[in-house]
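Structure tokens please, single chain.
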Amino acid sequence: MAKKKKGGGEGGANWMDTYGDMVTLLLCFFVLLYSMSSISEDKMKAIIQSFNPNAIITQTDPEGNSGPFADPEVGNEQPGLDEIEDAQNEVENMMEELFAAFQQYAKQDGLDSAVSVSMDGGLIYVTLMDRAMFMPDRADLLPESYVVLDGICSILEQSKYAIEEIKVEGHTAQEYDDRPNDPVGDWELSGARAARVAAYIHQHTTIHPARLSGEGKGQWHPVGNNQGEAGKAPNRRVELVISAKEIGSELYKELAVLTSEGGIGVQPAESQNP
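Here you go.
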């Protein structure tokens, strides 16, 4: 007796493979069309408002550029290279003027032996000799030092927007020829003198305190040989080391955030002798 053939042949599901290939090709085709198309702004608005009739469409440029869709809250926070270069040139001009002003100030009668000025590597160094500033072996300011510091503060104020940082460094001389100074007293004296000058600048200018620092150097950065009074006197000093802003640098950005710069500064205290 003949055997019956089984129904539903073995290739009955092959159509699904062909269908899947066709859907994949159609998907690729539509992706290609989409990549070549441009989005109509009006149609996009219509689609959004069809879902939410009360939607408010705000057109902004997230990069904050100066085009018609610029975000007014962002603005042009990334200036072009030309603008950065112009700003840096302006800073350099202001630093040159600052240096010239200090040179002129140091030439005044009575100040030539108390204040000296130099520039090296883009840094301005203003040196204040201790005999014109402090009581012997103490950090107390002499009464006549207020006039000197007031003049310095006035000059700094005029060029504050070009200044990145003012480091106030205190130095001492080696008291004895055969041994170094007592470490505790040496570091404390140099640090305290630097702190007093930094605090005076803080109190009598609108330079933000984040741009000021005070540091004691002790006897370890001498400019004289410490032999006799003539070799010790130059070492007893306080130096202002003034650096210029470097537009776009990391330090510039950090200090700009700290000081909220763009014109907002700290109001100076009432000028008075501490």
